[in-house]
Amino acid sequence: FSVGDVCSKITVAADEDSKIIKSYDASMPMHEAMARRVSYVIAPDGKILYEYTSLSPDQHVENTLRALKAWAAQHPQQ
């Protein structure tokens, strides 16, 4: 995907031992080694500002951008 579709412009990572999935409580209920489709907006201080969970990818970008813009409006210096 990264090499063919976006010419390596994004970083792709693997979570082989599910540490990241577990640390964000993002595992699927019936299959703990698989992550739910969840998007986060994380502030520079590491605080999770917004979380959106849906199996459908349709609203993830729109919703997270809205949350990011709201945060940015309240923090113009950061």
Going by helix content, strand content and strand pairing, the class is alpha+beta
Instruction: Estimate the strand proportion.
Output: 15-25%
Shape: globular
* Quaternary class: single chain
Strand-and-helix sequence, N→C?
A: HHEEEEH
The number of helices is 3
How many angstroms separate the termini? 32 Å
- Number of individual domains: 2
Q: pLDDT below 50 for ≥5 consecutive residues: which ranges?
A: none
The main β sheet shows up as: 2 strands, antiparallel
Number of separate strands: 4
Q: Look at the structure and give the mean pLDDT.
A: 83
Radius of gyration: 15 Å
Q: Which range best describes the helical content: under 10%, 10-25%, 25-40%, 40-55%, 55-70% or over 70%?
A: 25-40%
Q: Order of strands side by side in the largest beta sheet?
A: 1-2
Gist?
With 78 residues, the protein is α+β, with helices and mostly antiparallel strands. It is 31% helix and 23% strand. The longest helix has 15 residues, at 60-74.
If you had to describe this structure to a student in words, what would you say it looks like?
- With 78 residues, this protein is an alpha+beta fold.
- The protein folds into 2 domains: 1-33, no CATH class; 37-78.
- Helix content is 31%, strand content 23%.
- The chain contains 3 helices and 4 strands; from the N terminus they run ααββββα.
- The chain has helices at residues 2-5, 19-23, 60-74, and strands spanning 27-28, 31-35, 38-42, 48-53.
- The chain has a two-stranded antiparallel ribbon with strand order 1-2. It has a two-stranded antiparallel ribbon with strand order 3-4.
- It starts with a helix and ends with a helix.
- 0% of the residues are buried.
